[in-house]
Design brief:
The chain has 322 residues and is of the alpha+beta class. 34% of the residues lie in helices and 18% in strands.
Length: 322
């Protein structure tokens, strides 16, 4: 920051999987694990069990892991890296786009849910430590969930240059949600036949609001076969963060988004250099704290190389070929 390499205008975030120091052949289902006193004395196991004790209640948005490593239980059973099933950790980088300087790093189990949650941690920590908050954030579709976009737009006022994770598009020939018009003032949807879908305003467990058409309107509608052939009446599900998702959709059509999409490759190149040039593909330490230590050291090395390449020049009297 002091040398001007960090601009703070745009950030990019991405995660890459590195193999944990755990055999992929020795995983066990959670209900088959019975920790011995000797295992509990190991740091990685002790950290994992302590984290479980600190959890007040399970998060319904997180799936129970199918397989756990007895030697490194915090690692995640994943097929992301090299398309080979193994235990791994997610290396999360938050970079300043201008010179690909890593402004924060976080270690997580190699799960998409944890990687998206880590981005919030990194953005808030960067703001708290360096008083640095970007105007825009570039990321791939995995980060385009309603909850994350809502947090980014409403709470942090950061422009999301992120493709929206949208599963509302239907491929069976019937009308998708985009074929319905939403009236924000009246809080209703209008169907292609001109009828209204209304809501009680209650929020469901999946963080969405449901809008229902009238049974009478749908029963006599000439477009029913193209709208809800297998249901008495049509229903639209709207995410509580749909406003933020709409903002992200509009950004996707701009030149600025196209530029961010290209610049996002700089964080991907960080991972490529780490694995190719530094041969860092498998962790040596176990446990989340071990992964965190190794990832921070890797980020420090990469930032020092960036400073050397950007700032240091050979003396003027030394020939270029020397």
């Amino acid at each position: 920051m002091a040398t001007g390499l960090v601009k703070g205008e745009g950030f990019a975030v991405e995660a890459s999987v590195l193999e944990a120091n755990a055999s992929r052949y020795h995983g066990k289902p959670p209900d088959e694990l019975d920790w011995s006193d000797r295992q509990r004395q190991r740091r990685a196991v002790a950290e994992y069990l302590a984290a479980l004790d600190e959890t007040v209640e399970p998060n319904p948005d997180r799936k129970v892991p199918k397989v756990i490593s007895p030697s490194d239980p915090a690692s995640a059973w994943t097929a992301k890296a090299n398309k080979r099933v193994q235990f791994g950790y997610g290396l999360n980088y938050l970079i300043d786009i201008e010179n690909a300087v890593i402004v924060d790093v976080e270690a997580t189990p190699a799960r998409t849910y944890d990687e998206v949650a880590a981005t919030r941690t990194m953005i808030e920590r960067t703001e708290a430590c360096f008083a640095l908050k970007p105007k825009r954030l570039a990321a791939d579709t995995a980060y385009g969930t309603g909850a994350f976009l809502g947090w980014l737009v409403k709470e942090k006022q950061i422009s999301p240059h992120i493709p929206v994770w949208d599963k509302s598009r239907r491929d069976d020939g019937t009308f998708s949600r985009s074929d319905f018009t939403f009236d924000k003032v009246r809080d209703v949807y209008t169907c292609p036949a001109g009828k209204m879908l209304t809501t009680t305003g209650s929020i469901s467990t999946d963080h969405a609001i449901r809008y229902n058409a009238s049974l009478g309107d749908c029963r006599t509608c000439a477009l029913k076969a193209n709208c809800c052939p297998n249901m008495p009446a049509r229903r639209i599900v709207r995410d509580i963060h749909e406003d933020a998702r709409d903002i992200a959709r509009r950004k996707m059509t701009t030149k600025a988004f196209a530029r961010s999409r290209d610049e996002r490759k700089r964080v991907e190149m960080r991972f490529a250099h780490l694995k190719t040039h530094h041969r860092f593909e498998r962790l040596r330490l176990r446990g989340l704290s071990g992964a965190r230590d190794e990832f921070h050291l890797a980020a420090i090395v990469q930032n020092l190389k960036t400073m050397a390449l950007r700032l240091l020049r050979p003396p003027s009297h030394v020939p270029a070929c020397a």
